[in-house]
Amino acid sequence: MPIPLDVVIIWHMHQPYYKDPLKNEYALPWTYLHGIKDYFDMPAIVEDTPGAKAVFNLVPSLIEQILDYAAGTAVDPFLERGKAAPADLGEDDRIFLLENFFSANRQRMIEPSRRYLELLYMAGEGKPGSARDRVRHFSDQDLLDLQVLFFLAWTGEASRRRYPAFAELAAKGEEFTAADKELLFATQRELLQAIIPCYQRLHREGRVELAVSPYYHPILPLLCDVRSAQTAMPRVTLPTAAFRHPEDARAQIMRGIDYFKQVFGFTPTGMWPSEGSVSNEALEIIAENGIGWIATDEDILVKSLEGGLGEHKERLYRPWRFACRHGEIGAFFRDHQLSDLVGFTYSQWDAGRAVADFCGRLHAIKGRASGEGRVIPICLDGENAWEYYPNNAYDFLQGLYRGIAESPALNLTVCSDVLARNSFDGRLHGIHPGSWINANYGIWIGHPEENLAWDLLATTRNAAVSRNPAVAEALASGKPATDAAVEMICRSLYAAEGSDWFWWYGDDHFSPHSDRFDRLFRQHLMNVYRLLGIDTPRELLEAIKKKSPAGLIREPAGFIDPEINGKISDYFEWLAAGLYDLTRQGSAMHSSDRMLQSFYYGYNKDHLFFRIDGIQELSRMLREIDVLNLHLIYDREYRLPLQMRADEGLLQVRDNNGWVPTSGHCRWKIAKTCEVAIPLEAINPAPKSKLFVSVTLVRDNEEIGRWPTDAPLMIYYAGPEIELDNWLI
């Protein structure tokens, strides 16, 4: 009988530590919102599905926050304003509701509710500054409906199936009462209290394996020694301070394991090191603390093995073992493409088609890499993808589990079970230092903002150690201090070591809440000085995250080579591209001004690439006859008319007689987004030159939208030197 191929699915459940140490309140509500949606739905879907098995990796600082909300002890301004009677809200609080209570996926969470969408239109569709102008049009009933609909939209599909109150409120849809709202929050509190017991129950039944991360989700190798970044990024600019504190890495691991054991009653076997970040030193410390297996990305394995993964990546589909002086630790390397399909692609597919495609790929891998001891690891974020799926991915995930569990050729299992019965004896005696993104640490170190954050962390830690011998002793041991103030200093430093703050510094990621992440990082450090009783350095009072003018989020960081298919096929496709936020470019001419959201641009040695994102899927907003014109100005003025019914055409140039075609053959696709490729030779820009770009929308021969309104976007073309000059990612 053929040996079935093992498949393990690891869901990494994580949020930053949002509790402000100075105010003792939550700066952002995402733990609560993902709690009532994903942290409950994900294990509940496993419980609802015969044969389903999965690994859930839970970050201890996330568990702490979930339990805080479940106990009713969390102080959260979003919840307070959501629970307050509209008649008791002042103007600023009413504006707060309009500015924040549409923070939900428009297609999947707002548009299914006629009333919620109506309120969005009334509020100006999120246009910056519109809340203050429009708030006077909102009655108390409008605001009450908004309060209920926002928190109701964030409840998941499994939640609605298990708690009838949610479905009943969704069916009512509008004209909610104070009693309705009270029922909503009381039921959500009940749900939050059921989250951890659900994971415990599934673990006891053998249906899930629970794993852990270091307590505050730090980049372990950079805690051990920031110089480890140079192995993967030889030309990286390191922070001024030489941060080397493996004892902090050890403390984060020890405290994470201890807290996990306190909550769940057993010691975890597995660990997803934060951001999949590994190094020899980090794995030594992990093994020293009794962890039996870790997981990271396939590119780490590529760079750790001579000869790569093999013709069909057959060396990827093995449970490797990392050998060190503390013994051996199992190592799973996630299939990058399969994981990204779930995270970024299948949300726009029919669930049945997506499941069939995924299972077909698993069977194809089995055909190429058959035999005993094979395993396909799939690992990804366990909460952020599902708001892009219908029904919070309930149908897709049930189909996925069933498709694998019911196939005789596949065995859906968990990591510890694979290692317990697998005879593969492949050993790694060294591992490439890197993370799940590009097998390096470029997201978290190297940019001036990131390096400044590391320097401030180092300075604060040195101040704590030099000023208070008890702090020095506690940090050296990594164990909880008996003195409350000393323990709080240690916890504040450990919280500031979390990866999330560094994720939002630099140019590679954008969030409208970047300033709050920046403030939280600095407040963790300010808390240390407050507890030490010394003045806070001025540097901590100034923002690290710099605001870019005119909507510029970042410049290009390197060559890109996206697939022109109108969708995001891979997380990395546009990661090195330049980015403008079109919502910060002023309004366009008519109500269409809120149609476009983001403008990406980049290039390789042959093409210029552009990507235009709408506030929702472009193919749903545009008509067949609409023309989206991409305008470029260099030595002359160029135009490329884009339509959904075509996907290629010639670049046009303006002359005295209007627009005439050039020989530049361009490709594009308008689907979820609009992606465009223009041959460089059609414009032939010189290295280190500037181009100017704008977009117009023409409907029925009338221009109804222009982005930006006043002046084109300036984009800098560095030329081939960008590959040498930038080591951002």
From TrEMBL:
Highest taxon of the lineage: Bacteria
Assigned keywords, A-Z: Carbohydrate metabolism, Hydrolase
Family as reported in the entry's similarity comment: Belongs to the glycosyl hydrolase 57 family.
Residue ranges of every copy of the Glycoside hydrolase family 57 N-terminal domain listed in the record: 8-421
GO molecular function, one term: hydrolase activity
Organism: Oryzomonas rubra
Biological processes per GO annotation: carbohydrate metabolic process
Stated name of the protein: Glycoside hydrolase
